[in-house]
Design brief:
235 residues; 37% strand; 11 strands; alpha+beta
Length: 235
């Protein structure tokens, strides 16, 4: 089982670290480094307020009172439904005891319903890109990833530190744009495929989708040939 855990952690690092690097870099660099239609953060990166437990991790709660706490990051393409995403999870009892912990890997994008773009979302919520020593960079949102609301449904594999792996359907809901009334609460829902157990109460956590536009290269300028001088023509 140790080799599986090591593989899982390496796989998560290969996905999460590049995604966080893209999201935490200045906006123009992010636009040039896109790997898909959307980047997403699940209770990680700049979404987490220090000392504020309601933002990170994202929590799905069952009717019995136990919870799954999750965080992660990734990219996906809405049309091809390809996805690269990973993160960590903890299963806790109703009294807060940790029952299980491990990593999760996304295997499939089942669906994505966009609620539309929210260009000012990062600034309204006090979030911005840029190195901390220089403060937030107030760059035009059109030059980089665009905050977008929506509901993404993934089929994931949970790999606990001990015991067998499990498959589940993970729903991530970001309440930006034109949000349907029935999905007005931000967070996650988790449904296990084998036993059908549902953690369908969004009990906290932040989600954000960032729509990434393909890089548009400026057309090359045509060099204008200067007319030959009188001296050259005479030779």
């Amino acid at each position: 089982m140790s080799h599986l855990r090591a593989f899982s952690i390496r796989a998560m690092t290969r996905v999460v670290v590049p995604c966080l690097a893209v999201c935490l870099s200045p906006l123009p660099a992010a636009a040039q480094s896109n790997t898909g239609n959307y980047i997403f953060l699940l209770a990680s990166g700049f979404l987490c307020d220090p000392g504020e437990s309601s933002t990170c991790p994202a929590t799905g709660k069952a009717t019995q009172g136990d919870t799954y706490e999750m965080s992660g990051a990734g990219t996906f393409e809405a049309q091809s439904k390809s996805v690269k995403a990973a993160g960590t999870f903890s299963h806790k009892s109703p009294n807060g005891n940790v029952l299980e912990t491990g990593v999760w890997l996304a295997g499939e994008l089942v669906s994505f319903d966009s609620y539309g773009a929210a260009p000012g979302a990062l600034l309204r919520q006090g979030l911005a890109f840029g190195p901390a020593p220089f403060g937030p960079k107030r760059l035009p949102m059109s030059s980089g990833p665009m905050p977008t609301g929506g509901l993404a449904v993934f089929r994931i594999r949970l790999l606990p530190m001990s015991g067998p792996s499990k498959t589940a359907v993970l729903e991530m809901n970001c309440v930006l744009g034109e949000v349907p009334r029935e999905r007005s609460v931000e967070g996650i829902r988790l449904t296990f495929e084998k036993n059908g157990r549902e953690f369908s109460e969004e009990a906290g956590g932040r989600v954000m989708f960032l729509s990434v536009r393909p890089e548009v290269n400026a057309p090359a300028k045509t060099l204008r040939q200067e007319p030959a001088s009188q001296e050259t023509r005479s030779n």
